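Annotators were shown the component list below and the corresponding predicted structure, then asked to write short factual statements about the assembly.
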Amino acid sequence: MRVDTSIDREARGVLERCGALREGHFVLSSGKHSDRYCQCARALEDPKDAALLAGLMKRLIGGAVEADVVLAPALGGIVWGYALAGEIGARSVFAERADGAAFTLRRGFALREGERVLLAEDVITTGGSVMQLVPLVERAGAAVVGFATIVDRSKGVFDPGREVFALAQVEFDMFEADGCPMCAAGGTAEQPGSSRLDGARRKS
Ligand code: ZN
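Structure shown to annotators:
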C-alpha cells in the first residue's frame, strides 16, 4: 500500500476540518462503539475540498499508474471517483447493484477492451465492495491498474495484488456496546450519520 506521511497529514487536515473525521465516542452502523467516526461524504460536500483531495491523490500516485477510466462503486465512491477522474484526466463511471445482486454498469456506461481502470473508493475497511468490481473490469477485457481510496481503515492489510493508494490511514478502537470502556466511564455515545434512519426505513 502506498502512503505518504505529508500527504496523510494534509488529507487528515481536510477530513477533520470538514467534520468527515471526528474523535469522540460514537455508535457505528455496525452497532459497535468507537473512538472515531469517519464519513467521507462530508469532505466531498464542497467541490473545492473534493478537488483538494483529488489533487493529493494525483500527487500520491505520481507516475506509478496511468488510467483511462476511474470506476467507483455506488454510492460512496461516486463523487470521489468523479473528482479524481477530473484531476487525472480520465473518464468517470460507476457500478451499482440492484437488490443486493452483483455490481453492474448501467446507464450506458461501458468499459472498452484494453482500457486501464483505476478503482476508486472513499473508505476501504475490508475492501469487499471495491474487490467486487475487479471481475466486472476483467470481463470487459480491461485491466485494473490500482485502487485509490481516501481513507484506509484496513491498517494497511488490504492487499489485492495491485497498487493501492491511500490518502490517510485511520485506525478505530472499536468495542462491543456492553464492553465499551467509554460507556463504562459514564460517557454517552453519539450516533452520527444516517444509519439509524436507514435502519428505520428498511424495517418499514
Ligand atoms: Zn460506548
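Statements collected:
1. The beta strands are 21-27, 33-38, 69-73, 91-96, 104-105, 116-124, 143-152, 163-169, 174-175.
2. The pocket of zinc ion is lined by residues 25, 33, 180, 182-183, 189 (CB under 6 Å).
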